[in-house]
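Standup notes
- DV: blocked on the single-chain target, sequence here:
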Amino acid sequence: MLDYKIHADNNSLYNTPPCYGIYMCGLVFEHLLAQGGLVEVEKKNMKKARILYDAIDESDGFYRCPVEKTVRSLMNVPFTLEKSELEAEFIQEVAKEKMVQLKGHRSVGGMRASISNAMPLAGVKRLVAFLKDFQARHV
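- DV (later): unblocked, structure below
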């Protein structure tokens, strides 16, 4: 019974609603509202994505994003290195800096930075600083 109107019309619960899931959604919604609502969260996400994509695009080809600029994601930023033989070293070094899960999907390769709502701007700036440092040491 997924039609909650039936529950309301009969003033009864035919099964237990997913209480914990509803509770967690409420916490997320409160957090989003505390940040200024979805409009403000979108602005923050656009800023994070712009900073990271700019670093990739301005690397003179050292880093490359395989996604056309008009359809790039605000949440997941895929990128590759001009010299693919450096990718394993990149993953090892970035992990030493406590930045993990950057390795791309096994069927695609490269790297992928997930910069969803939970990732603060400071985390993206830290990754960009690492990108620039890694590039400077390998050019």
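- Follow-up: The beta strands are 63-64, 76-81, 111-114.
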